[in-house]
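Input (CHAT domain-containing protein):
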Amino acid sequence: MLRRGRRGVRGGRAVARGARHGVVARGRAGAPRGGGDGGGAAGAGRAGPGPGAARRARGGGGAAEVPARAAARAVGGAGVRARDAVGVPGDPGGGGRGAGRRVPRPRGGRGVAGRLRRGVAGRLRGGGGTRRAGVAARAAAGRGRPAVRGVRVLRRGRPRVRLGRFRAAAQGAGGPGRAVRARPLDRRGRPAVRVPGARGPGGAVVVTVQLKLVDADDLYVSWRWEHLPAEPRVLVLPRERVAGVLAEWAAAVPSPLPGEGALAALRRSLAEGPLVDRAREADLSTRLAAALIPAQLAGELNSALARGVRPHLRVLPSPSTALVPWEALRVDDGTRAVHDLDISVLPPATVANDPDRAVSPFDPRGPVVEVLDPRVPGFPDDSALGAVLGAPRRTEVARDALEGALARASRFVYVGHVTTGGHGLDARLHLSCTAATTGRAALLGDHRPLTAADVVLGHRPGAPRPWRIPNRVALIACESGGDLRFAEPSGLVTAMVNGGAEHVTATRWTLPTDEGLRRLVPAFPATPVLPSIVRAVDEAHRAPVPAAALNEWQRGLATRWEETGDPTCSPLLWGAFTTTWAPVR
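Output:
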């Protein structure tokens, strides 16, 4: 709680010094240890509104989907010491760089107010017309009416801080009964969320919001903040409002459309599609964000960002939204959602919360099983199941040896081929297994793939013998995370979670090889990009919080793409990856 006073910190709590300037320390966000339907926030990146997250403190906005009573007051942040605002993920007691140092008082309007003064008004499309609205959050030190419970702000000044924003404005249907009352709002009718004041490791405030989408005739969107479980929000998006842009995105990525072959899909996406052209991709990603991110949710995210808190967005997509790259959604000029949020996938509750599921322990120094581009029997290097990394393949790994190695491992990294079948459990991982190997998949010549069902039930005849899966799994392959395309979410990611994995990084769509990129993308550099992707994912799984570390890598590439249009930094590549997090309950 902010206490009255003029100096630094008392008893380890922040004292409101320089409150009227809205100063918040710069540093790294902390990480929680769990919570909610499978987790709390995974912190990473910069937490305070310093030259990073604060400059991009964008919320989305405009009016809520339905009228609601004012339930909170939006305020700006007061000055705090770095130790109380930052923390390193996984460090139970540490702060970020410069922990414990007092934040200097800004001069000449250079603090948060100065950096965020350029905030722009967003266009909110809903109902029957266009409404132009700006957002201005008061650093309400003079009012003493914070939106955060348990926090008092000194009565010193009333500066106005203009915020950037999520320019997302998905609105519910206009008729009554189409949307549940969404609240709370601040006293001006703007969305706000109360941050409970609880801090994660290192002193950082951590908040997590779960976003779930359900397909019916329309698209049902619900979300709830894990610290406000009694206040869920529900919104109905008419299918005609989202179907067009979702179809555009499906046609932009290199996964085959119905009746389309793999090579034709690659040519459509890489040679002619918008994802390798910065202007066209930005337009599509902006429209996708505007269609899917509710204005109410965007405003609540902005409320948290204004407090110097990086929210953690956990998404459970529906089949129609399974290809949506939430990290790459363009929420403002030059800003992607991953710039302001940590983002991960929420596993199906029926799997993550299974009482018989046991999460495998993680030892940072434990064994790592790496299967890199294994040779597939009967498929030469230049075939459909040929070399992924370009060099002639040397690795030969069959399922019996892999099962034994995973039983003792802490991590598993697979780089190779994954193909989908008629249902999720038929998703296939291709090893060096011959026709003599037992399993549930039909033969492909002299090769028998390993299916998700083989992992869940065991690949040998007789009683089920599920595989034991390490705590962390990276599946760097085409559509390895395609579970959510099915009405009953199941597939390789679900199988790994069921077998004990807590963190599973996989891809949403087909991942082109370097050879395919060079042949099909105009003027694509000759330098291979896939090895650097493999290294980035592997390094993320060495970090205390893999999802947050993966997001940090994505932020860097997103910034370069926005600034330079470098095709090696296109969301075509980094936007394919996401991490499913299924922590210990």
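Residues 1-164, 173-187, 198-203 have pLDDT under 50 and may be disordered.
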